[in-house]
Amino acid sequence: MQTKRMTFSSRWLPYALLAPQVLITVVFFIWPASQALWQSMLRQDAFGLRTTFVWFRNFERLFDNPLYLASMKTTAIFAISTTLLAMSLSLLFAVMVNRMLRSREWYTTFLVWPYAVAPAIAGVLWWFMFNTSVGIVPYMLEGFGYDWNHRLDGNDAMILVVLAAAWKQISYNFLFFLAGLQSIPQSLLEAAAIDGAGRTKRFWTIVFPLLSPTTFFLMVVNVVYAMFDTFGVIHATTEGGPAQATNILVYNVFRDGFVNGNLGASAAQSVVLMGIVVVLTVVQFRFIERRVNY
Predict the structure, then answer these.
(1) Taking the domains of the chain in order of start, what are their residue ranges?
(2) d(Cα 52, Cα 137) in Å, to the nearest integer?
(3) Contact 259/276 with Cβ under 8 angstroms?
(4) pTM over 0.90
(5) Which branch of life, at top level (predicted)?
(6) What residues have CB less than 8 Å from 136, skipping those under 6 apart?
(7) CB of 154 within 8 A of CB of 146?
(8) CA angle, residues 60, 66, 67, in degrees to nearest 5
């Protein structure tokens, strides 16, 4: 068996093709990450008039701060809840739309639209719906005997931000799940149906295992989204409250850096957050990917 080998007419062409991606990675990731790492070892005022090199003292203070450790726990709860809710609902919608024949395109279009909404706008929409004064949801819950108040109750606030963040991500997950469902050969499902397997059994024994690459990819993307891209949702709905019940790590970086003016601690928190995401991604690819069937 002969194998074809690609050759380039110029020895510099492969480097020229890689140069744009390498340049983007250096400018928008490596350089800011190195700057954050350097600034995390400094103590400076908000105006940059005085700077002191303190080595790892900012990190030591972070892990000695009980509020920061509580923020890490809050981030874990928020990330896991948002990922599970967004992926489960998007998979359900994708399965339902995939069974449609005539109106599939219409439902797909309607389900994709929320992804175009900015995170801050999504947070404002959910804030209005759950507003204790003018919101429709607290009014409906009051009829069932539940007094909703996300301004005072930390559990209500966490539910609100999880719903808002998951709603923003459902459209993205839905597109990938629907594409994965449409790529599954119908002959496999028809053969299983002939053998007497019901819809539920066909889904868990055939469809879901074949969706494992898509599910794994979306799990990584959703975890990164929940830990990095949900600042707008938190800021527009609860601002980290009440009593820091929704103060996740990425919002704590903003609060310490831009509100309190503690730039060194804020940079140290950004480095820790980046390290956590890198470790989680490596763990997912190292252990969870083993169960993925390509």
Answers:
(1) 52-293
(2) 51
(3) no
(4) no
(5) Bacteria
(6) 129
(7) no
(8) 105
Number of CB atoms found within 10 A of residue 98's CB: 18
Task: Answer left, alpha or beta for residue 247, where phi above 0 means left and psi between -120 and 50 means alpha.
Answer: beta
How far is Cα 74 from Cα 267, in angstroms, rounded to an integer? Answer: 20
- Interval 23-42 mean pLDDT: 86
Residue holding tokens 């908000």? Answer: 46
Fill in the amino acid letter for 1. M
**CB-CB contact of 246 with 161 (8 Å):** yes
- Tokens for 48, please give them: 């940059």
- CATH code given to domain 52-293: 1.10.3720.10
What one-character DSSP code corresponds to residue 9? Answer: S
Residue 157 near residue 242, CB atoms below 8 Å: yes
Token pair 């009593």 is found at 243
Angle (CA) 62 68 70, round 5°: 145
The tens digit of pLDDT for each residue in 172-223 reads 999 999 989 988 888 888 888 888 888 888 888 888 888 988 898 899 899 9
Q: 139: which 2 tokens?
A: 């009014």
* Closest CA relative to residue 83, chosen from 289, 209, 224: 224
Q: How many Cβ atoms are within 10 Å of 246's Cβ, its own excluded?
A: 28
CA atoms within a 13 Å half-sphere pointing along the CA-CB vector of 14: 5
Is the bond preceding residue 242 a cis peptide, omega within 30 degrees?
yes
Six token digits for residue 213: 């690459």
Asked if residue 103 lies in contact with residue 97, where contact means CB atoms within 8 angstroms, the answer is: no
Write out the two tokens for 170: 């459902």
